[in-house]
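Holo model, zinc ion. Inputs:
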Amino acid sequence: MNNLTSRSTAAGQGCRAAAADRLRHFGVSVTRPRVAIMEYLMEHHVHPTVEQVYSALSPEYPSLSRTTVYNTMKMLAEHGAVTLLTIDDRNLNIDENTTPHAHLYCTRCHRIHDLPLQGVSPLQASYAFTLDGHLIQQVHQYYKGVCRECQTDLNKEPLLTNKQ
Ligand SMILES: [Zn+2]
Ligand SMILES: [Zn+2]
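Output:
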């Protein structure tokens, strides 16, 4: 599935440097596991779960635990370096794209897709603002439904069953 992210040494080092820069940018002290986690997030724009990040990195970092990955995500979110999504009832998903945007959770393929915000500009959502007298500090727009790709698959299904 992720065969586009093949690891050439030069590209790997470039990404590692970019990941370290990003941690520093958000005021996070740089450690090897943190760089590995950030590098993974920057290479996989699929809103991975803690489990997916842990499984991907544990062969290279055997000392890494699920708890470390989870605590690192919490810490990165507190520094504003990632956003934690609670759109999926069963999993916490991590978003490395911190530009405010909406999400669609597909009930068929369980993937999370990015969408533009509705009714609030990304700039407005980046700062606190008042709404009906309330102070809004974060905007999370979650949609649930069937994604475009899955609708295409559903439309193809009668053709596939006819072939049997
Ligand atoms: Zn889908
Ligand atoms: Zn996203």
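Residues 1-87 form a domain with the Arc Repressor Mutant, subunit A fold (CATH 1.10.10.10). Residues 106, 108-109, 111, 147, 149-150 surround zinc ion (ligand 1) (CB under 6 Å).
Archived with the compound record.
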